[in-house]
Amino acid sequence: MRPDQPGHYLLSSGTSSSATCPDEAAATGRNDGFAANHRYRAGVADPVLRPLLFLDVDGPLIPFGPASQPHPTYRTGSQPAGDNSNPLLDRVNPSHGPRLEALGCELVWATTWMTDANDSISPRLGLPDLPVVIWPDPGDDDERSGLHWKTRALVDWAAGRPFIWVDDELTDVDRAWVQANHRGRALLHLVDAGIGLGESDYLAISTWMSGEDGL
What we know:
- Helices cover 31% and strands 8% of the residues.
- Strand 3 (163-167), helix 8 (172-181) and strand 4 form a beta-alpha-beta unit.
- The radius of gyration is 17 Å and the shape is globular.
- By secondary structure, the chain is α/β, with parallel strands linked by helices.
């Protein structure tokens, strides 16, 4: 869904974040959420070489829509106070947090939840605050061509770094555009929104991480 359209319990937006290194942030004077980014990278010898994992929320982490059986719910005691107004949050499976961290990527929120993902989703997954992609206004040309409104922004954000994009709205138009306009490796992985992230999705990501598949 576009950032100017209502999402599934879409919350307010926040400030931007970056994947720049500490020296670059100091040199450029940027402080757009870098502290959270740096905390997440702690202990990694060379984080610049790690692939980015752009993570959508609605669909991959909060399954919705038609399903063969009711969506499972989870109550872990880690949910922030005051988020009970959104019943879909109980569909966030806390086991995704350790599994996502174990992939060895730099996790980045790429969702219309924007910084609210750090307030409401990260605690349920046991994750720290993550960098957040802030979306520009989508272009009419992209809509006419069938290109997803996130695609250009994520390629710009990656700036040549290898990346994985996990979303429930990807098409071959996006894959072709990324292949033509991104100089690094990329995996655009489509998740079934009615099921959410599952074993086959983690297998596809792990296979790509091993260098055996992807663009």
